[in-house]
Amino acid sequence: MKAFILERLRRSGPLLGLIVLSVALALTTPHFLTVNNILNVLRQVSINALIALGMTFVILTGGIDLSVGSMLALSGALAAGMIHGGVPAALAVALALFAGAAMGAANGVLVARGRLAPFIVTLATMTVYRGLTLVYTDGRPITGLGDAFGVIGRGYLFDLPLPVLWLGLGFAGSYLLLNSTVFGRHVYAVGGNEEAALHSGVATDRIKIWVYTISGLTAAAGGIILTSRLNSAQPTAGMGYELDAIAAVVLGGTSLSGGRGTLGGTLVGALIIGVLNNGLNLLNVSSFYQQVVKGAVILLAVLLDRSKAGR
Amino acid sequence: MRTQRRIGVLLVVSLMFLAVLSACGSPAKEAPPSGDAGPSSAAGGSAPAAEAKAKIGFSISTLNNPFFVSLKEGAEKAAQAAGVELVVVDAKDDPAKQVSDLEDLIQQKVDLIILNPTDGDAVVTAVQSANAAGIPVITVDRRANGGDVVAHVASDNFKGGALAAEFIKQALNGQGKVVELQGIPGTSAARDRGEGFHDALAAAPGIEIVASQPADFDRAKGLQVMENILQSHPNIDAVFAHNDEMALGALEALEAAGKKVIVVGFDATEDARKAVEAGRLAATIAQRPEEMGKIAVETAVKVLHGETVDKNIPVPLDLVTKS
Question: Using CA atoms, how far apart are residues B11 and B13, in angstroms rounded to an integer?
């Protein structure tokens, strides 16, 4: 019975953290708990949350993807470049998503077939993809992308900002993929015990290639939304985003060694980071203290999760 | 299987090699101001020959960038006016080439070296060689992180912040709510631009800085932080961002919220100048590279004449508004 309660607590730990943080902010500033601000936070969270969804797949297999920020930048730049070159927005978006998936697949092939540590592979490709972005953009932002493309990041469906809708669709899709398919079960199997998974007939290499491909795809989606919101593709876009995405996944209770974790947790983790950023701005906290607070909240959340997990 | 693995390794090694190369290539833009040791006006041992034309070496980081071309032109004009010979060498953004450039200048026995470092750390040994040869060194724009440097000539970020404050004060008739978007906390640019801005507004009681928040010199963060600030301060009159990237991000947030607010950036990048011309951005602050080159040479001439010069020599900035 006690074990059952502990398990429930562990599962709801991240959510509890989010609620505590939100209540604290609602009590300290009247601007936090308004419909406008909640939609604002959701819109801001959408990019990191999308990347973190892809990252969850990778981390569930025991891997890591440090190249997401660079894939985001290169996909966004490719989309912007194509639109500048006269390609219709819808086609440019589709091709940019494909490019992101291809970059992710390259990571996956290097990890799976090259038998290399994911940390090293994606550290290297992080730099390669960033370099390619600089080459492609000549180090300058690509601006003036037109209204059709602008809708993706700045449009609304009734009162709902479109980036939130994209996040919802991305979450629904990845949730089904992870929880209702053979592929999803195999993702957990690879992360739980790769040797055992291999012996029971799981094509572990193929699973690994796919999870990195998914990560590339979600990073590209984030890149397109960001480019649209800024109406500009920045050569330096997405720097440091890998850390925010990893933080969201870990805050959401997913184990960095793989095999354990949920997408719902990741979404909550991303929301904790977003709410924290929003709250610090609303409270006008001094820039030096902001970094201390952010780090401390992450540590606290992970410590709570660890103690509840009892390992 | 084995060859497959070998090919994989080869691929990754070449990738990592590329990674290392590109990591080395990125110059440290924000060279931290190192504790400049040493006497401030020790003009070395070599007093210039009174009659012979003085020879100044100018090692410039690159001429493949309009900013540095203007810097060189300003220096050349000032050298002509002062009647000194100026030898310009172009490091083509390569720290190794710059070090050998400097060694060449030392061999030529120039009377003084004006140095625009490609990399604050890589040039230190070359500065020390010049020190050993008794040749005084003046740095321009970027600092050298070691060695004895007589003077450092660079844009006055403090005055730039004040310039932005003055502009906003006038545009608002001394009355209104202002937001400040700060650069990466702890960098000298963020510190100086912010202090200049705050100091200048201290004398304007009608203007209230309702929020000062960091957006790390980044456009996406500028957008996001501005959106958040608008939640708690929907009615603001002006925004000062420590660089144009944040200003342009904030502009997207403000336009999306349907607000017409005076936004002032810093650096006068190409994007920002376009936004100023389009009437979206109210103003941006521009560096004056030509003036920087001129002041560097004038300072060099003073040093050669044995005059004492300040260790830090600020170069004024320009306010860019719609023409």
Answer: 6
Q: Where in chain B is the domain with CATH 3.40.50.2300?
A: 55-149+291-313, 157-286
For chains A and B, CB pairs below 8 A equal 108
pLDDT digits (tens, 9 = 90+) for A169-228: 999 999 999 999 999 999 999 999 999 999 999 999 999 999 999 999 999 999 999 999
Q: Residue A248: CA atoms inside 13 Å, Cβ hemisphere, count?
A: 31
Which pLDDT score, from 0 to 100, does residue B40 have?
Answer: 40
Q: Residue B71 and residue B318: Cα distance in Å, rounded?
A: 15
Q: What is the ipTM of this complex?
A: 0.83
Residue A85's SS3 state is coil
Token pair recorded at residue A91: 């086609």
Domain map (residue ranges) of chain A: 32-309
Report in angstroms the alpha-carbon separations of B166 from B84, B195, B318.
39, 13, 12
The correct answer on CATH 1.25.10 for the domain covering A32-309 is: no
Question: If contacts are CB pairs under 8 Å, which of residues 157-216 in chain A contact chain B?
Answer: none
Q: Which of A237, A192, A239, A181 is nearest to A214 (CA)?
A: A181
pTM, whole model, 2 decimals? Answer: 0.78
CB B264 within 8 A of CB B247: yes
3-state SS class at A160: strand
Q: Which fold has domain B157-286?
A: Rossmann fold (3.40.50)
Question: What phi and psi, each to the nearest 5 degrees, are found at residue B208?
Answer: -115, 130
The tens digit of pLDDT for each residue in A130-165 reads 999 999 998 888 988 988 999 999 999 998 999 999
**Contact A115/B8, CB-based, under 8 Å?**
yes
The partner residue sitting opposite A37, judged by closest CB among B9, B231, B270, is: B231
Residue B23 burial (C-beta neighbours within 10 Å; 0-12, 13-18, 19+): exposed
Q: How far is A96 from chain B (nearest CA, A)?
A: 19
Contact B20, A129 (CB under 8 A): no
Question: Which class does domain B55-149+291-313 fall in?
Answer: alpha beta
